[in-house]
């Protein structure tokens, strides 16, 4: 199956324009039940395969990635890879909270993509370090610059090695766009690993 670089962009566009408050079908109780689940178990609840991967950065932070390797009713196999990076104070959960048919990770998986969701250092899934403790001040001495310089390259290297692809699609939301441009400008060799970058609510200076 051949995928054009623009296919991710069109999928995102139709996902955005079709979003409506009237689409919400969950009861209040179901919403509360979902809110108690982490990303992995939320994805599993809706019948999708999910994997947890650990990634180690050059400066020894330990990041957790979540992967939906294929759609709900699809069989495993090689697929084009898309990488989703969350916004400020968020996590991979933002791509799946809207449930199947509405959450972008589900939609892309059902469209035939191998979906990888990153988690930046310090968030609920990536609060580990080989030496530093999260309770220490030193653990938190970073900004979006370090996320772009260390975290993104480490995760992209991991994903390309794990899947065997040379290039992937990138979707960033808010801070997820900022850190991409940090990587692209400070480590330009990574531009060769990106097919296309989709910026949702982009932030740059």
UniProtKB/TrEMBL annotation:
Keywords: Glycoprotein, Hydrolase, Lipid degradation, Lipid metabolism, Signal. Transmembrane segments: none annotated. Pfam families: Abhydro_lipase (PF04083). The keyword Signal applies. GO terms for biological process: lipid catabolic process. It comes from the Eukaryota. Residues 1-19 form the signal peptide. The keyword DNA-binding does not apply. Residues 41-98 form the Partial AB-hydrolase lipase domain. InterPro entries: AB_hydrolase_fold (IPR029058), AB_hydrolase_lipase (IPR006693). SUPFAM superfamilies: alpha/beta-Hydrolases. GO terms for molecular function: hydrolase activity. Belongs to the AB hydrolase superfamily. Lipase family. This is Lipase. It comes from Operophtera brumata (Winter moth).
